[in-house]
């Protein structure tokens, strides 16, 4: 509440804050996957292939390591996506849609340099992932 000229008023803000801690990582990941699951372009892949009890904690650790320096993630996402590509061929449209949803979600919930870093990292990850998945289809490709 504020006081101006003898009148009391509520200060309403829609200020977004930056990604700062594990709770922010969880919000970022949870809201992202909620959108992904509802998406017509990529949702089916996630609905049909993911064990959510193990995937969500893994994603919290991944993004916590990427953005907060937690060093808690230990897995091989490239191998998992190459295997996934054999079941559901992944193309540029899938990676682009994943990035669109990621960016929309970040913009909806956060503002600041760490949010910007989350977007840069996601773009780099998607680019490398798409390239290596595509290359894995070539017999004898060195990844």
Characterization of this structure:
This protein has 143 residues and is mainly alpha-helical. It has a single domain (18-136), classed as Globin-like, CATH 1.10.490.10. 66% of the residues lie in helices and 4% in strands. It has six helices and two strands; from the N terminus they run E-E-H-H-H-H-H-H. It has helices at residues 22-38, 43-49, 52-68, 77-87, 92-109, 113-136; strands at 2-4, 7-9. Strands 1-2 form a two-stranded antiparallel sheet. A hairpin with a 2-residue loop joins strand 1 (2-4) and strand 2 (7-9). The termini are far apart. Mean pLDDT is 89; it is low at 9-13.
Helix content: 55-70%
Flag low-confidence runs: 9-13
Largest sheet, described in full?
2 strands, antiparallel
- The chain-level mean pLDDT equals 89
- Going by CATH, what is the homologous superfamily? Globins
Beta-strand proportion = under 5%
Number of strands: 2
Shape: globular
Kindly, what is the distance between the CA atoms of the first and last residues, rounded to a whole number of angstroms?
58 Å
Compressed to H and E, one letter per element, the order equals EEHHHHHH
**Number of helix segments?**
6
Strands ordered across the widest β-sheet: 1-2
Q: Which class do the helix and strand fractions yield?
A: mainly alpha
Instruction: Find the CATH topology.
Output: Globin-like
> How many structural domains can be distinguished in the coordinates?
1
Text of the CATH class: Mainly Alpha
Return Rg in Å: 19 Å
């Amino acid at each position: 509440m504020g006081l101006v000229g003898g009148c009391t008023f509520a200060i309403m803000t829609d200020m977004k804050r930056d990604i700062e801690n594990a709770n922010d990582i969880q919000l970022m990941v949870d809201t992202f996957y909620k959108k992904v699951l509802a998406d017509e372009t990529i949702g089916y892949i996630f609905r049909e292939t993911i064990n959510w009890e193990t995937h969500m904690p893994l994603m919290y650790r991944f993004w916590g390591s990427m953005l907060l320096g937690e060093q808690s993630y230990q897995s091989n996402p490239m191998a998992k996506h190459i295997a996934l590509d054999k079941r559901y061929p992944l193309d540029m449209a899938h990676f682009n849609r994943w990035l669109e949803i990621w960016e929309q979600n970040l913009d909806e919930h956060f503002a600041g340099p760490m949010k910007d870093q989350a977007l840069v990292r996601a773009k780099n990850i998607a680019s490398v992932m798409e390239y290596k998945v595509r290359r894995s289809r070539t017999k004898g490709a060195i990844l």
